[in-house]
Write a structure and sequence with these properties.
The structure is a single chain. A six-stranded mixed β-barrel has the order 1-5-2-4-3-6. Helix content is 35%, strand content 28%. With 158 residues, it is α/β, with parallel strands linked by helices.
Length: 158
């Protein structure tokens, strides 16, 4: 009787672990699909084969910039808060902007003064409020754009 209870207990644990693994994989695949959709839309925009889209004014926000140095990020400077690899196409937003519904992960934003399109894929330390953070591999490039106010639009494809 005791062995049967142990087997039942272990079976239940394995079933729960399997369900958790399936859930994590499902979420990961969904994130990859959304990211690849955004990347393909960006490729179309950059190649001047622009799909129909709408630009929604978000406002003028202070913008800082960072590079992949540990002292400017956390202990994983090449990975965003949602597990994406950092790149020039990714932008971070302050946590209050997520909370207030201004942006969400995966939103595509246009930065008017830079004539750039980036995807919201990271978040900033909670001490920062109402701002965006641009990633640059070169720290000297990051210094050029540090703490300036830029105009932001959300790009929504129709």
């Amino acid at each position: 009787m005791k062995n049967k209870e142990i087997v039942t207990y272990l079976s239940t644990i394995l079933t729960v672990m399997l369900l958790v693994i399936i859930l994590v994989l499902t979420l990961f695949i969904a994130a990859l699909n959304k990211f690849s959709r955004v990347e393909s839309e960006l490729a179309l925009i950059r190649s001047n084969q622009i799909p129909p889209f709408q630009m929604i004014y978000l406002g003028k926000y202070y913008t800082t910039a960072y590079s992949d140095r540990v002292r400017e990020t956390d202990n994983s400077p090449r990975t965003t808060s949602i597990g994406w690899h950092v790149s020039r196409n990714v932008i971070a937003a302050s946590q209050d902007m997520f909370k207030n519904g201004v942006v969400k992960y995966g939103d595509v934003v246009y930065i008017k003064e830079l004539n750039e399109i980036r995807t919201i894929g990271d978040t900033m330390n909670r001490r920062w409020k109402e701002r965006f953070d641009l990633f640059y591999y070169d720290r000297s490039m990051a210094d050029r754009f540090d703490n300036k106010k830029f105009t932001y639009y959300r790009v929504v494809t129709k």
